[in-house]
Design goal:
Blueprint (H helix, E strand, L loop, with lengths): L21 H15 L8 E2 L1 H7 L4 H14 L2 E4 L3 E4 L4 H25 L2 H17 L4 H16 L5 H18 L6 H20 L2 H31 L1
Antiparallel strand pairs: 1-3, 2-3
Helix pairs in contact: 1-3, 2-3, 4-7, 4-9, 5-6, 5-8, 6-7, 8-9
């Protein structure tokens, strides 16, 4: 796989990551980025008319976007009180990655039993790209890492499980943009990806599923540790 300009991981085939109009999906991404980057702060009210003016759109796409964000947990909507930003706290991140620990091993187990030579070649090519990038471009690493796992899950028969994985993956990717990978985590990601490819080649479905569970948990714990360090620094 050669160098790609503007590489962007795509959701599993047959999955609409937004379930909204094109304009609604665009506004969703803008508001989500504002929440992640802190431009919209925890418990801020989200007034539809104000957001529509801010993003130069009508109110319908904003309403669509807020419903999507509600579904992902970024926004809380209360009857007669409207929408507000949910605090992106450690409990929120823990809940998301713990669901991944439950889902991804099952998706992986199925993939190992169905993997073709072409699948394995694609995994190796993406991993080569990951290693060439070597975390120099964090956004590119994130996109490639997502592509690596999407190759494994995109053909799974349970589309609800694959869609839930994708949505939660996007949440954690968005949150993790605020943090740098530690050297230890970088080495662990590289090692576990290569171990996973070897287990897939060997048809070791149970061992591969167990490894993916550890991999997902390691990612979640890494984000939590970064959040805890920031909280401690602010408290100090």
């Amino acid at each position: 796989m050669g160098e790609q300009t503007g590489f962007k991981a795509q959701p599993p085939k047959g999955i609409d990551p937004f379930g909204a109009s094109t304009e609604g999906a665009s506004v969703y991404e803008l508001i989500r980025d504002d929440i992640i980057e802190g431009r919209l702060k925890a418990n801020d009210r989200l007034v539809v008319a104000d957001l529509a003016e801010r993003h130069g759109t009508s109110t319908n796409p904003v309403r669509e976007a807020l419903q999507l964000l509600r579904g992902e947990g970024f926004v809380l909507i209360t009857p007669n009180r409207g929408a507000r930003v949910r605090p992106i706290d450690q409990d929120f991140v823990r809940d998301i990655y713990e669901i991944g620990v439950l889902i991804e091993p099952a998706l992986t187990r199925w993939f190992v039993n169905m993997a073709t030579d072409d699948d394995i070649t694609q995994l190796e090519q993406v991993q080569d790209e990951i290693e060439r990038n070597n975390f120099v471009d964090p956004l590119r690493h994130s996109e490639l890492d997502t592509r690596f796992h999407t190759i494994m899950y995109e053909r799974h028969y349970n589309r609800h499980a694959a869609e839930l994985w994708w949505k939660h993956r996007e949440v954690l990717r968005a949150v993790s943009r605020r943090f740098n990978f530690t050297l230890a985590r970088r080495a662990q990601v590289m090692r576990e990806h290569r171990e996973l490819i070897a287990l897939i080649k060997a048809g070791e479905a149970e061992k591969a599923a167990e490894l993916v569970g550890r991999h997902v948990e390691g990612s979640g714990r890494h984000i939590l540790a970064q959040m805890q360090a920031i909280s401690a620094a602010r408290a100090g």
